[in-house]
Design a protein that fits this description.
Layout: H1 8-26, H2 28-50, H3 58-83, H4 86-106, H5 110-117, H6 126-130, H7 139-156, H8 160-171, H9 185-192, H10 196-207, H11 214-233
Length: about 240
């Protein structure tokens, strides 16, 4: 390589290291919480798997098969976020959101769970599926869920218009092309403030009341409850 020529691999490797360092510096508490929720998901999976029985309801079987997908999506999205790959992070987040919404639906609907296990198509749109994330969604919550999901769809199903919009978003900031990926503190804070994996834990302890030890279920409820109280006190989320 001639003198003065840019080593792209070295450049992006250094950028990734800086993103990791900045994320850990500014969001160490939030990152630790995300890691703990993933550990709890693993514990819930092992506990449920060890008590698996053919006599289980279709809902419980369906939840067991969805759980590994949730764990891997949660781990992958966290890794992408730390390293500054925000576009890819949003793609995985949509998968995580869909999986948790599906878990919420099948954990309470035996007939749909049976169809799903038999590889039958569920007659429910993905927009309606996302509404499963709240037991009594208000119009405001539904609008928010639709907006979030629609924005994620733009990343997952990128077309020419979406690509141009993403390109323009960066160039309008007068950012040089080689500034990608760029550490964005506000984006990381917004993403970590309410990790979807914590929501998955709450659905799981409800679905596996008999299979998970009472002490474990109490630990999860207290764990998530304390974090939600912190978010409320800090003004990060509202009731």
């Amino acid at each position: 390589m001639s003198k003065g020529e840019l080593d792209y691999f070295d450049y992006f490797t250094k950028k990734e290291k800086r993103n990791i360092q900045k994320t850990r510096k500014y969001f160490s508490k939030e990152l630790e919480f995300c890691k703990e929720t993933i550990d709890l998901l693993f514990d819930a999976f092992k506990s449920a798997f060890n008590s698996y029985s053919e006599k289980w309801s279709h809902s419980k079987k369906a939840c067991l098969f969805i759980l590994p997908r949730i764990i891997m999506s949660a781990k992958t999205s966290l890794e992408l976020l730390i390293r500054g790959y925000y576009f890819d992070y949003i793609v995985v987040q949509r998968s995580l959101m869909e999986s948790i919404a599906l878990l919420a639906l099948l954990s309470k609907d035996e007939e749909k769970a049976k169809k799903w296990l038999n590889f039958e198509k569920l007659e429910i749109s993905k927009f309606k599926l996302i509404h499963q994330l709240h037991p009594s969604p208000t119009k405001k919550l539904i609008t928010l869920a639709n907006k979030m999901y629609a924005e994620q769809c733009d990343y997952v199903h990128s077309n020419f218009v979406a690509i141009i919009a993403e390109f323009s978003r960066h160039t309008n900031r007068r950012v040089k092309y080689l500034e990608f990926p760029k550490f964005e503190k506000s984006l990381i804070g917004e993403a970590i403030d309410s990790p979807l994996s914590a929501l998955a834990l709450l659905f799981l302890i409800d679905a596996y009341q008999d299979e998970l030890e009472k002490s474990f279920r109490t630990k999860v409820k207290n764990f998530v409850g304390e974090k939600i109280s912190e978010w409320k006190a800090e003004g990060l989320i509202k009731n």
